[in-house]
Amino acid sequence: MPDHLRQRVETCYQQAEAFFQHRFPRPEISFRLRGQKAGVAHLTENKLRFNPQLYQANREDFLRQTVAHEVAHLIAHQMFGPRIAPHGEEWQLIMRGVYELPPNRCHSYEVQRRMQTRYIYRCACSEGGEFPFSSQRHRLVAQGRRYFCRRCKVTLSFTGEQRKE
C-alpha cells in the first residue's frame, strides 16, 4: 500500500473532522480492487478498497479526487445514516464543502480490458449464427447445462473453436 494513498486518506479524515467538529473512526484500507472501479467504500464495514492499476496510471488525480470521493462516502454514511443516496446531496456537500472538489460520480480513467476467451457455439439452423460463450457459460455446459437456439429450439453445441477478444 503506497504511503501517499494512506496519507491522503488521513488528510481527508482530518479535513472532515475540522469541518464537522466530529471524530471519525479510521477505515481499513485495501489495495485489492480490479476491473473498472477506481475505488469502493464498504459503508457498514468502514472499509476502503482501491484499484492499484488505476492508481499507478492516474496517480495525481487518483489521490486528489478518487480517495476523497470514497472517503466522502464513509463520512456521509457516518454523519447522515444509511438511508441517504450514494451520490446524493449529503455526499455532494462533503465533496464541495469539505474537500472543495467537484462531486463527480465516476472517474474518466482509461481502463485496459483484459483479453477474454470466447467459446463458439452453433445451432442446427443456418439463421441462428454463432454464439460466443464466456468461460463461465462454457464451464456450465460442461457441467450439463443446456442452451437453446431461440429460432429452431435445438441445443447449441460447441464447435471446438475458441477466440481471444
From TrEMBL:
Gene Ontology biological process terms in this record = response to stress
Q: Identify the residues that the record assigns to the SprT-like domain, covering every copy.
A: 7-159
Q: Which InterPro entries match?
A: SprT-like_domain
Q: What is this protein called?
A: SprT protein
Organism of origin: Pseudomonas fluvialis
